[in-house]
Amino acid sequence: MIKKVSNFVPSHKNHGRHQPNPVQQPAPKTPQKNPVAPDRLQALIDKATALDTSKSPVMTTSRYTASRQNLRIIPMGGVEEVGENLTVFEYGDDLIIVDMGLAFPDKTMPGIDYIIPDTKWLEENKRRIRGVIITHGHLDHIGAIPYILPKLGDPPIYTMPLTAGFIKKRLEEFGLLGRSRINVVSKDDVLALGNFKVRFFRLNHNIPDSVGLSILTPVGQIVYATDWKFDHTPVGDLPTEFDKISKYGAEGVMLLMSDSTNATEPGYCVSEKELSTTIDRIFQDTKGRIIFTCFSTLVSRIQQVFDAAAKTNRKIIVTGRSMVNTIEIAISLGYLKVQPKIVIKSEQAKKYPDNQIVVLTTGSQGEEVSGLARMARGEHKTVKIKKGDTVVVSASVIPGNERSVAVVLSNLTRLGANVIYNKILDIHTSGHAHQEELKLMISLIKPKYFMPIHGEHYMIAAHAKLANDLGIPDERIFTLENGQVLEISSAGTARAIEDPKVSGGYVFIDGLGIGDVGEVVIRDRQVMAKDGMFVVIMTLDRRSGKLVNQPDIISRGFIYMKGNDDLIREVKHEVRKLVESKGKEKLEPNWAYLRNVIRDEIGEYLYQKTERRPMILPVVIEV
Question: Which of 394, 324, 323, 401 is nearest to 104 (CA)?
Fold first, then answer.
C-alpha cells in the first residue's frame, strides 16, 4: 500500500483560484521580536502572498443529503476540546481516519479514566476504511487505538517509526499487538488509499516524528496540521519542512486544517533550544539531588535532561512506568542519545553523593499514583524527599489539574524541597504554535477554505479570527462541532452538514468498562460526591403492604448517624406515615410507585432539614 512517488503534482493545481488580479496581502504583523526566527523565516513571511478571496460561496448548514461525488470531512473528536482527536475523510466508497486519541476527564466526571469518541457510525462502515494515519505519539492522538481499532476490524495503521513504537507498546499492554497491522512509513512516502493519496511533511512539536499531511482527493488538496510549532532549533529533531509547505501552497490547497491550541497566545513559541540553556543552568547551580518531572512522552525534554546530566557528571534514576516505557522505546529506535552507564538503579544511589544524582519521574500533573505524588506523600518505595532536594516541574498545568498539582508542590515544600516550576522560572515551552506562526502557516498554504481544529471552542474561535484578519472571508471559515460534516463538492463549493447518522458524542472508559457508563451514571456519581447517599429499607407484608417492623436507615457521605439520632428518628416516622397512607387507599401494593413516593417525599423532607440533596435509595423487602 505504500508507494513512493517522485515529482508528484496533483491535477487540481491552483483549483478555484482567480489568477489575473491576485490581491497582495501584507506579511503578518509581528507584535514582538521572534527570538529564534532566522533570516530564512523572515524571508518566508515577506514572500507569503495574498489569500484568494474570489468566488466566495455562502456557508450553509443543512441536513445530510447523500452524495458519493463529494468529499466529506468529519471531526469525530478534537474540535470541542483538547484531546480525543479523530477525523474521518470520506469520498465515494473510501474512508481514511486520521488519529485515534483519548481525552482525560475533568472533576465533573468522578470515576472516569478516559474519554474517547463515539465511533458507532464508523463501526457500521468499517468495510470502507482503507487505513488509519497517526500524526504523532501523544495519547490524545493514539490513546484510543486499543479501544476503537478492534471494533473497526483492525484496519492498517500508517505512521512514523517512533510513533509506531509507542502504538505497539500500548497495544501490547492490551494484548492486541498480534492482531494489528502497523506499517512504518517515512516522510517521503506517498500512500495510495482508495481515492486518497497521502503525503507527509515534518512538523516540530515536543516529540520527534511529528508530521503534517497533504491529502490529495478528487476535489482538491487538504493540508492537515495538528500539534505543531515552527522551531528552528529543535532538540532531537530537524526543523519543519518549509520547502514542502511552500510547494503545497503553490500547487493549490482547497482546505487547511490547523492546530488552535495556542491561538490566543501572541508572538512566537519559545524554542526547545532556549529551554536547554535554562535546564543546563539549573543542573550546574544545584548542589543537591535533582528530581525532574515532565510529561512522559516529551522525548525532547528527556533528551535535555540526559544531556544536562552528562555535562554535570550526574547519574539518572528513572521511575514511573510510562517514563520507563518512553525511554526504552526512544533508545531502541535511536531517538534518544544516552551515554553508557548514565542510568542507574535506585539501590545504587547510595554509592554517589547527592550532587551526582538526578531522579527522572512522572507526575507533572499531580496524578495520584505518579512517582512524584508518591514522593510528596512519603510513600515512594525508593526515593524519599529530603531537605536540600530540588524538584523541577517542566510542564504546564492542564486545566482541571491545578488543585492536584498545588497539593503535590505544597507537600514537597513541607518536606524541605526547593521547587522550581514555570511561574518561578521559564522551565517549560509549549509544543503548539503561537499567533505569528499560525498566521505564517496560513500565508504559506494560501487555502481556499480554512478549518481550525484541535482546541476548546474559544481557541478555535481565536484561530478563525486570525484567518479572517489575513483575508479569508467568514463564509470560507468553518468552525465545526464534533460529529458535524464539512462537505466539499467537485465544483469547489463547501458547506457544513448535519448528518443524523454521525454522532459527536463521547464514550466513557471506566476500568474495564467501555461505554457502559453513561450520562445518567455520571450524574448519579456527581450527586453522591456532592451530598452523599441515603438508603431507606422497608420490610413490607406482601399482601397488605404494611410495614412489618421499623424502617432501617443507612447514610453514606450525608450525615454521621450517631450524631443525628433525632433526624433519623423523624425520617423513620415520615416513612411510616407515607407507607400507612398508601395502605389506606386499599389498592393492590405497587412497590415501584411506593419507592418513587418515598424518594420524592423523603428527599424533600431532608432538604428542608439540611439544605442538602443526597441520593435517596428506597429498598423494599417483601415478606
Answer: 401
